[in-house]
Amino acid sequence: MRDKLIRLLFLSVLIGLAIPAQKAAAQKFGYIDSEFLLNKHPDYKVIQNELSALSNEWKKEAQNLDNQIKELYVSLKAEEVLLTEEMYQERLAVIKVKEKESVTFNNRVFGMNGQYYQKQAELLQPLQSKIFDAIDRVCKRNGLAVLFDKASGPLMIYTDPRHDYSEFVLEELGIENK
């Protein structure tokens, strides 16, 4: 999901840069590698660590719910012979409620538009804006009509390194490539 969001942002940049290029007679093209840029940016590592910590915390919570359900099933199985049919059905209903809680929790946290993805978008947005602004400045300074993103999928079959503007974007962001 994170990669799709980033790729969508860069695709939007490319489309936005391509429209003014139609007016120019000679069009100049280039490409960047958004994965390379993100991995080089120090803020990205901080964001990844924060997301990882949140994810681990939520995964533990989900595991606790699953463990409670398993314990309830084990307890039910152990006491099955001692329970009346009514008591058995009551305990089974409690287990089903717990299972629904678990599914609801997982959907709320990790589902589409869940808390994890909302937090990810919230944390990545400022970084994406910085990178977009740097890309915009590099494109204008170098007179690029179109800038492709090498990381966004199978759009590029061959790339000539002399048209790679990733280093210029890193430089614009003030990041030294080591």
Automatic annotation (TrEMBL):
Signal sequence segment: 1-23
Pfam families the record matches: OmpH
Domain of life: Bacteria
Alphabetized UniProt keyword annotations: Coiled coil, Signal
GO CC terms, sorted: cytosol
SMART domains given in the database record: OmpH (SM00935)
Coiled coil segments of this chain: 48-75
Example GO biological process: protein stabilization
Gene Ontology molecular function: any one: unfolded protein binding
PANTHER family documented for this protein: CHAPERONE PROTEIN SKP (PTHR35089:SF1)
Family membership: Belongs to the Skp family.
Protein known as: Outer membrane chaperone Skp
Taxonomic source organism: Rhodonellum psychrophilum GCM71 = DSM 17998
Lineage, broadest ranks: Bacteria, Pseudomonadati, Bacteroidota, Cytophagia, Cytophagales
